[in-house]
Amino acid sequence: MRDKVDLKLAEVAIAMSNARQDGGVGGTLIRALATSAWEAGIQSWSASFYTDNFVMRKLLELVGYEQSEKSEEIGTVSLVVYRLSPPSLASADG
What we know:
Blueprint: E1 9-11, H1 25-39, E2 44-50, H2 54-61, E3 64-70, E4 77-84, H3 87-93
Parallel strand pairs: 1-2
Antiparallel strand pairs: 2-4, 3-4
């Protein structure tokens, strides 16, 4: 969902069943979403997830880099903003 104030920022979320994890689907999905977002003029994503959700962090790092993070304490939900890389660079890295 695109931010109402910063039109280059959008929220991203991914949910996947346990049966589909570790099969590469998440990486394929995040790359496709990032490409579509970039083409729509979105250059950063915000994401809310538990601070210890390293899988989500790894997926987001496939297509960009962390700009900022706000969290209360370990195990709570973080709001993390990732700057997207242009699709040609993101696909070359991953």
